[in-house]
């Protein structure tokens, strides 16, 4: 039988959001609010305390909140009686009000988190039909936004208890769901890794997430893959290589969709930075350098060194265009957006040079291999000379 209190959830949420906002303002501006008994935060809390009595009494999870609100009302009344007197008692009362307001905000957020995770879990376990797709996407977006606020142990416990990660992974891997829902599930998985990599990384490494992202082959799924590589680093690249996924990623450089080509290039650069010898070997064996030479030669590429705009920023592990002037940053961004494969051969070589996955002797050997491949793939001696110069200019002396 359904819980009758669930019918009041929208009303409860509205009251709790107002209480949370008032509590937050009370903590953010304590002196101003305490010295003004008619301040908006204090008035809101006192009015909502009266209104919330009947609402909160229906939910056992909100019993502590009712007690905190009652305590807060008593403390505010005590302070207002002696507000003209500066005393130790007045100071301690102000401190207690801030502490109770903080507890109110925490209790409310915990309730909202419980409701949100329960709603998301029910939706993820629901039917695959499209009639509730908008609602599912809304819940996934709210969940991702909440995770982006930073680590919270209570929220993590809720997620683990509800097995949200497994549900997200199941939807991501199921082609019967729409591409939109699967992509939002991928965003949520990425958010969980950023929320607490140590807890959720094992599920990524052992489960079907990476294969599903690559199989989906959309710009959004590949962006999530890039973010996971940046977060998990070499262990994830090792898994990608051992599962034979690198050839698939390289093949996206031949895709007709430019967005997928660009994001695939980003993934290749991340793999180059974090990959060990086996991963780099796998990329070069797929003819990566030849493909990069062709992309750099295309309308979407160029040789920055020939434009006199070549810059190697090793701290940010990138090769980019250098534009001087008042609007230089905007011009640089626009230039690179219109030429996403500018100096892409040198960019890849720099990733290997400054990356974390290779030993020094391996870096030297791969640089020589890349130089040889560039000369072989170039259409002319002049083209080869330009690309070789960019690689050498971007490498350590």
TrEMBL record:
SUPFAM superfamilies: ARM repeat
PANTHER family, A to Z: ARMADILLO-TYPE FOLD PROTEIN-RELATED (PTHR35834), ATAXIN-10 DOMAIN-CONTAINING PROTEIN (PTHR35834:SF2)
Name of the protein in question: Uncharacterized protein
Species for this entry: Rhamnella rubrinervis
Lineage: Eukaryota, Viridiplantae, Streptophyta, Embryophyta, Tracheophyta
């Amino acid at each position: 039988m359904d819980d009758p209190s669930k019918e009041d959830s929208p009303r409860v949420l509205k009251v709790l959001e107002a209480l949370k906002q008032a509590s937050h303002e009370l903590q953010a501006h304590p002196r101003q609010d305490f010295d003004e008994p008619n301040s908006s935060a204090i008035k809101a809390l006192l009015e909502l305390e009266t209104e919330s009595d009947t609402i909160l009494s229906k939910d056992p999870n909100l019993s502590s909140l009712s007690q905190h609100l009652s305590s807060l009302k008593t403390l505010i009344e005590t302070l207002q009686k002696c507000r003209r007197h500066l005393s130790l008692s007045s100071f301690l009362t102000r401190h207690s009000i801030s502490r109770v307001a903080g507890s109110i905000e925490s209790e409310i957020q915990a309730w909202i988190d419980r409701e949100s995770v329960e709603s998301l879990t029910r939706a993820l376990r629901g039917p695959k039909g499209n009639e509730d797709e908008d609602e599912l996407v809304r819940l996934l977006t709210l969940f991702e936004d909440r995770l982006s606020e930073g680590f919270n142990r209570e929220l993590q416990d809720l997620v683990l208890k509800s097995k949200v990660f497994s549900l997200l992974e199941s939807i991501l891997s199921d082609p019967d769901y729409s591409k939109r829902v699967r992509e939002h599930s991928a965003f949520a998985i990425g958010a969980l890794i950023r929320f607490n990599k140590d807890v959720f990384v094992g599920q990524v490494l052992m489960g079907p997430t990476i294969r599903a992202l690559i199989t989906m082959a959309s710009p959004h799924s590949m962006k999530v893959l890039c973010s996971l590589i940046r977060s998990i680093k070499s262990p994830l690249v090792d898994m990608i290589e051992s599962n034979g996924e690198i050839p698939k990623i390289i093949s996206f450089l031949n895709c007709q969709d430019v967005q997928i080509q660009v994001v695939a290039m980003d993934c290749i650069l991340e793999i180059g930075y974090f990959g060990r010898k086996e991963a780099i070997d796998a990329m070069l064996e797929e003819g990566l350098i030849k493909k990069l030479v062709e992309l750099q030669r295309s309308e979407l590429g160029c040789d920055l060194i020939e434009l006199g705009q070549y810059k190697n920023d090793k701290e940010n592990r990138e090769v980019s265009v250098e534009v001087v002037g008042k609007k230089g940053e905007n011009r640089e961004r626009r230039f690179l957006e219109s030429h996403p494969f500018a100096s892409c051969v040198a960019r890849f070589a720099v990733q290997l040079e400054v990356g974390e996955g290779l030993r020094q002797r391996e870096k030297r050997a791969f640089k020589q291999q890349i130089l040889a491949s560039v000369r072989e793939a170039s259409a002319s001696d002049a083209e080869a000379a330009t690309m070789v110069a960019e690689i050498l200019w971007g490498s350590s002396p």
